[in-house]
Amino acid sequence: MKRTILIAICVIVAIFLAKEVYESNFGNRRVVVAYVTAGSDVVPDPSLMTHINYAFGHVADSFDSLIISRPERLDQIVALKAKNPKLKVLISVGGWGSGNFSEMAADSTLRARFVQSCVEAVNRHKLDGVDIDWEYPTSSAAGISSSPDDTHNFTLLMRDLRQALGHNDLLTFASVATAKYVDFPAVLPYLDFVNVMSYDMAVVPRHHSALRAADDDYLTIEKAVQHHLDAGVPADKLVVGLAFYGKGTVRPERGADMQAFITENALTEHWNEEGQYAYLTDSIGNVVYSFDNARSLAEKCRFANQKQLRGAMYWEYSRNDSTHNLSRAVWDVIMAEE
């Protein structure tokens, strides 16, 4: 009897300690997730983020393995842990136009091989998990294959990844702003958090990532978050997506000095109070470019904190200027109360 009680106590203590270790590593603390791409050579400042999603990995044409773009670049990013030991680095699999998900997820053998390939990549590159960016289950809008069964098979993929990764690695995914295509009640038990792609939601003269708007037909960050809350995602598993880029008929070069761009093109800068974003007009008043700056990003991060969301993510780091002012604005607000 005493031996049985002792064993029970040991099991409870082990579970408690495992939970403590997990929460100290990942927990429910606020996150700042930076997408860092294979196509850039910019090395991020690891003190301005809690997580890096390396973009991208892809499902191989054989449907059974993971291909990583520029693995040497990924290793360079992982090496940033030497400067920030708390930094978590995930491989983000997919992206717009990245296919082969539908075939892979539909076949249990192919799915198992792909999952094992992901686990091997996590171990080989000393990663902290996997972020799935399938855009989007059941949709061929990005020119990829799809099936009506994709939503169910997406859940199976998340289940299998979680089982293979265990609970010491992270599993996240990027979700469309409307919260469509995914069965959230089914998939949430396998996820650490959800990255909401609350950008690319409109074109000029509207802003593609406005905080809010009076127009009911205008998709905004506020509405994107509400769509996910309505779909059953708890606030503390929601990470709001921010854009480090703008849209318009004119566009500055990546990392360009915005004031120089405005002057050179004889543009005028304005501020949209309701949407909380900046925009530029030409000499006759036409909106030619709308964008986020440090001020607008800070306001959107305050919204995330007010809604008690898990944090913020952004696409993508190399869009900063030389002072990293965009990343710094996100970090300073999201982590202000941590």
Account of the protein in words:
This protein is an alpha/beta fold. The protein has helices spanning 2-25, 71-78, 101-106, 108-124, 150-165, 184-187, 221-230, 258-264, 294-306, 325-334; strands spanning 31-37, 51-59, 66-68, 88-94, 129-133, 170-176, 193-197, 238-243, 247-248, 268-272, 277-281, 287-291, 311-315. The strands form 2 sheets. Strands 1-2-4-5-6-7-8-13 form an 8-stranded parallel beta barrel, surrounded by 6 helices. It has a 4-stranded antiparallel sheet with strand order 9-12-11-10. The longest helix has 24 residues, at 2-25.
In short:
The protein has 338 residues and is α/β, with parallel strands linked by helices.
Shape descriptor? globular
Spell the H/E element sequence: HEEEHEHHEHEHEHEEHEEEHEH
Coarse structural class: alpha/beta
Helix content: 25-40%
Q: Which residue ranges are poorly predicted, with pLDDT under 50 across at least 5 consecutive positions?
A: 7-26
What is the number of E strands?
13
Instruction: Give me the number of helical elements.
Output: 10
Radius of gyration: 21 Å
Largest sheet: 8 strands, parallel, barrel
In round numbers, the mean pLDDT is: 92
Beginning-to-end CA distance, first to last residue: 46 Å
Strand content: 15-25%
Strand order of the largest sheet: 1-2-4-5-6-7-8-13
